[in-house]
Amino acid sequence: MNPIEKILTDFPMMILDGALATELETHGCHLNDPLWSAKVLMEEPTLIKQVHTNYFAAGADCAITASYQATVEGYKDRGLSEVEAIRLLKESVHIAVKARDDFWSDEDNRYGRPKPIVAASVGPYGAYLADGSEYRGDYQVSEDQLVSFHRERIRMFIEAGAEILACETIPCLKEAKALIRVLKEFPHIYAWVSFSAQDGVHISSGERIADCAQWLAKEEQVAAIGINCSAPAFIHSLIHEIKNETAKPIIVYPNSGEVYDASSKQWNEVMPSQSFSTSAKSWYEAGARVIGGCCRTKPEDIEAIADWARQS
User: Which residues form the Hcy-binding domain (predicted)?
Assistant: First the structure.
């Protein structure tokens, strides 16, 4: 049984964590860097453990590792050796596992909830490029090249003890197909695949989310299909599109609703029509069964979701 199925067998939904980078910035980290939160693995890994712990305390059933933008190539570009880079990729998993185990060792933290799992964040090729192409999917590489790019770091995450892979912010079906090819090399491991979206029907490349869900639906190792790092306003429609094509659990963890200005590299606040927690409840009612937050969401948002989810 895959880790998501195991939780959903006993609980009505699975709660993800929220934004890692946002919380690291709250703790004083400066992430305007090609390595983004992977930079903190080099500098202050104890802060990453603290953020994971905060999300577990808020009610998260899953920690997503600080490896979204972590690659051997990226660390080597920063001057690290290959050995050091590999250690940091594996350390992203070790930190999350240690945070989970320490949290779960307190019996007071176990009431009415599943034991949290650790998902290794497998960001897209565009995250390594750090040029915004994970929101376009227009990088000029073949599917075979994408397989080669992802293979070794996925192997590292599995060796480090990740219980599931979070293949997230995927902009195009070609990259999803490449990831599934790699996944089949590790038949005992499951993954979720979540795309970034440009509207309520299309992922970032312009392809229909329904076509992506239909293609992934037949893949046994895919534990859930969905959307992350996208506007909350698109989520309800995207759930409907996915639900029409698959019986797999639907996973959604959008941004808070703020809009990122790539030129100024700043987030612009937008007053949401309703709270993130209220929106999350509507996504659950629409059919999503794995729900959390991406950019600019906080432990308070996850706690608010847990407040109603654990009463279901």
Answer: 2-309
